[in-house]
């Protein structure tokens, strides 16, 4: 019997020669006309729509997203649908649906409380190998005490990412979460998830999770390290495309080609085959920034050129980051 990952790849083949779909997807618990919808987010949602008018913008509820997943996956990979429906907490389901939506339809996913600084038409893409997955670094705490504060030495954001439909990384991620849902069903049901989501690291990430940023990060590293003869490209805008500060962190096995050390301190895009890793500024902005200046005409230079968006922490589920400084 095929594994879930194999069946996803078989029934929904990835087409690497096609471009990423011109879709923008945003998701919340309810529709935008519901009284409980976060009012402060609406202006930022509208900006995503208005400055990217060549994209199909979709703002959907969890219920609508779930119906979309059922219609698409139930006939051939029903286990994924069963796993989604088995989740006892709405936030767990919310995180899982991000990956499922983009796997099914492709495009960009953005949380509703994210401000879009630069129109998508100006975002980086490689002229050597077209990118089919773009992710950004959300935390990169280059300090000996990183483990006291963070889940991971370096992590990637699942609040905003871009991918071609049926990308094999997303197939692997969906299969892994589905496997956890079935093999740890009792533990998942017995856990008080409302309490768990109050226990956070310095990045605002829950210390215990299996649908959020941690599994997104771990699975991406696994995916990258399983690529055969992967092409590794750094985009240098000047003499250095990496911060020259010594990198500290856990030991890495000698046979592991890609780890936090590959991306820590990068100040320009880095690419492994069709996966583009953007620097921390791209989806986070500047630390302690109080004012955002839009870059609607792609005028910024240097490191600021790669500032595309950042979370504003406007919803009940937003990551509330602590302000920290590395030594």
Name of the level-1 CATH class: Alpha Beta
Instruction: Could you tell me the CATH topology label.
Output: Spore Coat Polysaccharide Biosynthesis Protein SpsA, Chain A
Mean pLDDT over the full residue set: 90
Amount of helix: 25-40%
Through-space gap between termini = 52 Å
Q: How many DSSP-defined strands?
A: 11
CATH architecture: Alpha-Beta Complex
Low-confidence stretches: 322-327
Instruction: Describe the largest sheet.
Output: 9 strands, mixed
Strand content is 5-15%
- Counted by DSSP, the helix tally is 12
The helix/strand class is alpha/beta
Strand-helix topology:
Layout: H1 4-11, E1 23-28, H2 42-51, E2 56-61, H3 62-73, H4 78-86, H5 90-105, E3 107-110, E4 114-116, E5 133-140, H6 146-149, E6 154-156, E7 160-163, H7 168-183, H8 185-190, H9 193-196, H10 213-225, E8 232-234, H11 260-263, E9 270-272, E10 275-278, H12 280-284, E11 309-311
Parallel strand pairs: 1-2, 1-3, 5-10
Antiparallel strand pairs: 3-7, 4-11, 5-6, 5-7, 8-9, 9-10
Helix pairs in contact: 1-7, 3-4, 3-5, 4-7, 5-7, 7-10
Protein name: Glycosyltransferase family 32 protein
GO molecular function, one term: alpha-1,6-mannosyltransferase activity
Pfam families: Gly_transf_sug
């Amino acid at each position: 019997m095929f594994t879930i990952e194999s069946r996803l790849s078989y029934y929904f083949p990835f087409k690497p020669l096609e471009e990423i779909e011109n879709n923008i997807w945003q998701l919340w618990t309810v529709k935008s006309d519901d009284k409980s919808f976060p009012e402060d987010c609406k202006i930022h949602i509208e900006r995503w729509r208005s400055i990217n008018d060549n994209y199909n913008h979709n703002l959907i509820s969890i219920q609508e997203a779930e119906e979309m997943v059922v219609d698409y996956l139930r006939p051939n990979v029903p286990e994924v649908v069963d796993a989604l429906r088995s989740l006892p907490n709405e936030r767990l389901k919310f995180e899982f649906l991000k990956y499922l939506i983009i796997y099914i339809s492709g495009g960009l996913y953005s949380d509703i409380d994210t401000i879009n600084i630069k129109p998508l038409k100006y975002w980086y893409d490689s002229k050597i190998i077209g990118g089919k997955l773009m992710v950004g670094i959300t935390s990169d705490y280059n300090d000996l005490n990183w483990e006291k504060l963070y889940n991971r030495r370096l992590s990637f954001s699942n609040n905003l990412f871009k991918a071609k439909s049926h990308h094999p990384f997303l197939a692997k991620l969906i299969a892994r979460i589905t496997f956890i849902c079935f093999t740890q069903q009792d533990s998942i049901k017995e856990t008080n998830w409302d309490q768990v989501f109050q226990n956070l690291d310095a990045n605002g990430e829950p210390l215990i999770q299996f649908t959020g940023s941690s599994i997104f990060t771990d699975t991406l590293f696994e995916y990258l390290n399983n690529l055969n003869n992967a092409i590794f490209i750094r985009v240098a805008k000047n003499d250095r495309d990496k911060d020259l500060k010594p990198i500290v962190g856990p030991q890495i096995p000698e046979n592991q080609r890609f780890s936090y050390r590959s991306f820590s301190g990068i100040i320009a895009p880095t690419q492994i085959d069709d996966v583009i890793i953007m620097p921390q500024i791209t989806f986070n902005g500047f630390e302690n920034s109080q004012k955002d200046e839009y870059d609607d005409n792609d005028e910024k230079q240097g490191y600021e050129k790669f500032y595309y968006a950042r979370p504003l922490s406007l919803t009940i589920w937003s990551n509330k980051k602590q302000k920290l400084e590395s030594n």
